[in-house]
Design brief:
With 254 residues, this protein is an alpha+beta fold. The chain has helices at residues 12-38, 57-63, 68-71, 95-99, 104-122, 126-143, 202-206, 235-240; strands at residues 148-161, 167-172, 178-180, 213-220, 243-253. Strands 1-2-3-5-4 form a 5-stranded mixed beta barrel. A hairpin with a 5-residue loop joins strand 2 (167-172) and strand 3 (178-180). It is globular. The model is unreliable at 16-20 and 38-63 (pLDDT under 50).
Length: 254
């Protein structure tokens, strides 16, 4: 016969007791099963340890920075650079090496030229330059015995003959001074500087060439103002590169 009255609620202790009893039974069952499984050594769980692969030497070396010893060569490994010998240009040859051993009066003649050249270049007016040339020529005549050139030395710069077979020659005494004959009969009409074939030294002169070092004897041809006559057409070239007209009485190779 059903009970029509309200349902009777079981107290919480009764419900909890039932659940607690079920949980205890399950826990005991798990423990027993676990102990029984461990009795068989073949069924014991084996822990598998996976080893991480070790880096290869190549990878390690590529990651590691190079040491200073491998990056830079040792001092013994570096070959010293060969020493480069410095070649110095030889000093300029003295005048005697280029134009022969000059006697004292020739050297004084050339020194007077250099001093006069400096005075001419430092002059500020045309009148001062004219005076510088006049004073220079006077000094050159004084130190050379009025143009007497005995056993002077130089180098043949030009040598040849005109249509009449008369020889003409130009001799360089220094880098700025030359003595010469006229090279044509018209210019030489009154000075008589061309060398005839009957001159005692003509055959010797004919055997020479340009560049030959010589010793000579000559006398300068005088001009109305000094013992010197020039072939230069302008004062400028006569001041810095004079060509003096002379009469040769002997020319011989050194």
């Amino acid at each position: 016969m059903p009970n029509d009255g309200p349902p009777v609620k079981k107290n919480w202790f009764a419900r909890h007791k039932i659940v607690t009893g079920i949980g205890a039974v399950v826990l005991i069952s798990l423990v027993v099963n676990g102990l029984s499984g461990n009795d068989d050594p073949d069924k014991a769980p084996v822990a598998q340890v996976s080893e991480s692969p070790s880096p290869s030497p190549t990878a390690t070396s590529s990651l590691e920075p190079e040491s200073e010893e491998s990056a830079a060569p040792t001092p013994e490994a570096v070959e010293p650079e060969p020493e480069v010998e410095t070649v110095q240009a030889p000093p300029p040859a003295p005048p005697e090496a280029s134009y022969g051993p000059q006697p004292a009066d020739q050297q004084a003649f050339l020194d007077a030229f250099e001093a006069g050249k400096a005075s001419y270049e430092n002059a500020g007016t045309e009148l001062q330059r004219s005076v510088a040339l006049t004073d220079r020529d006077a000094q050159m005549c004084a130190v050379s015995g009025q143009g007497n050139m005995t056993n002077w030395t130089g180098k043949i710069l030009e040598i040849g003959a005109n249509n009449d077979g008369l020889a003409h020659v130009k001799i360089q005494l220094s880098d700025g001074v030359k003595v010469q004959t006229w090279n044509n009969a018209l210019s030489d009409l009154t000075d008589n500087t061309l060398i005839p074939q009957n001159a005692p030294f003509f055959s010797t002169l004919a055997g020479m060439s340009e560049g030959t070092l010589v010793t000579f004897v000559a006398q300068s041809v005088p001009s109305p103002s000094s013992c010197l006559t020039r072939s230069n057409l302008t004062d400028v070239f006569y001041a810095i590169d004079p060509n003096f007209i002379v009469r040769f009485s002997d020319i011989r190779p050194l």
